[in-house]
Amino acid sequence: MSNFVDRVVLHAAAGDGGNGCASIHREKFKPLGGPDGGDGGRGGEIRLVVDPSVTTLLDFHFHPHQRASRGRPGQGSNRHGADGDDLVLLVPDGTVVLTEDGTQLVDLVGAGSVYVLARGGRGGRGNASLASARRKAPGFAELGEPGEQLDAVLELKTVADVALVGFPSAGKSSLVSVLSAARPKIADYPFTTLVPNLGVAQAGDHPPYTVADVPGLIPGASQGRGLGLEFLRHIERCTLIVHVLDCATLEPGRDPLTDLDVIEAELAAYSADLSNRPRLVVLNKIDIPDAADLADLVTADLRDRGLDVFAISSATRQGVHALSLALAARVSELRAAAPVPVATRVVLRPRAVNEPDFVVTAQGADGFLITGSKPLRWVRQTDFTNDEAIGFLADRLARLGVEKELARLGATPGVEVTIGDVSFEWEPTLSGGGYVTAADGQQPAKVDPVVDDEIHLGPRGSDDRLRSSVRLTRSERMARAERARGFDPSDPADPAGSVDPAGSVDPAGSVGTVGSAGSVDLESTVDRALVEVPGSAEPGGPAPQ
User: Fold this and answer.
1) C-alpha angle with apex 283: 282 to 288, nearest 5 degrees?
2) To which H or E segment does residue 7 belong?
3) 3 annotated as ligand-binding
4) Which residues cross the membrane (predicted)?
5) How many beta carbons lie within 10 A of that of residue 230, not counting itself?
6) Which residue of 11, 14, 500, 510 shows the fewest CB atoms closer than 10 Å?
7) Annotation-wise, does 215 bind a ligand?
8) Is 312 labelled a binding residue?
9) Is 495 among the annotated ligand-binding positions?
10) CA angle, corner 305, sides to 299 and 311, nearest 5?
């Protein structure tokens, strides 16, 4: 197994939030102690941090599944749960984070760069946090929100100053071994180098520079032939491209100029950004007489193209010192001309003032789908085994305007509504009155609570059916008491409702008493008709026993 991995698929799962606690304070002599359930802790998040000491993604190759710890649940006595521990993953400098479909999320360059790959879930609120003036002792608590989960592709693009490119067996690994202390594998057969090799070189008074040996390229490498497609990405970050041309090759149809044209074509096909990158040409293996003669022949043509040419021999180290000095000087110039790196700015993207909190989408003729961060989070945090928690969710959705939007789109009672993974039947009467579609079929109109014997609930917390309650008013109770004493308010003998000294009830149901002058004072007036109550006397009927 190779010890170099430059592409992995990472399965990241942030920690779930802890559940809130539903608890009531219990203490001697305090029977109504009130809610004291604590909130759940936040789930741990997963962060990617660039560490210069890490040079490969090998650890994630063997451990592709990474999960952060979850938050602890809340407890009674207002004890909040502990937050989950964040998981920090160290990655090499030059790591690119992509989605599965190839969309780039972030390019991590520079020691200490940080990216939050997956955020932990929010902790659920305990019933102490849910208490209000209208709901003094909630009997429920919120569940913890699940943490984010995603499959991310990590690709490593080597950060080096000089990239050595060329055909297989052109002598790139040998050149790295003489320029630096790196010891890559060297053999006399093609594709000896299977992974990029890095070396640190220094020449003269110039600062050190890094050299990357990219595996050999062949025609069609940009389309996947050979190993080129796997490692062409490592050339993108290099400051200087060095073409290593083999002057001693015996393959037919190959010569330094032809090899240079082929490699340039593959680089252009892979990325247009590489066309303007500074270049330098190295004619290798001049320790062989025929190769030295060939190098002398092509040097003039290469310089006519505006390229600096160096003839060397990695075996005898002829010309290597001059090449190293030239590379160090060129890298120093390019570093000085490079723009000053600016620290990554934190970009704040607030929501637009007209951005809706949710979107209702019709699904065919018998369903609606509700999307939005708030409704989705509320559903995830609702305990559907608790009726009070379900009512709390319905209140929040109604205040958000979900039910009004459903009614506007023509939703009918019983239609299936889906939020996240939860589907339920919509009952519009639960948020105040029923709705019917107008004659034009467009705008729904609100109807009375009782139409054609159909009962509708009023605003949440009330019930329009209470209008027909059997509970008697004070006037009705007094009239009932008078009937019990033998006075009939419907007696035609007293149409004006006059009373005797003992007092009686007039037909209108008012109670009369004799004043000091013998006049009648009305103590109260029945403001609604008598209702039929089991066990009570009907108007004009016998009094109850």
Assistant:
1) 145
2) strand 7-13
3) no
4) none
5) 16
6) 500
7) yes
8) no
9) no
10) 25
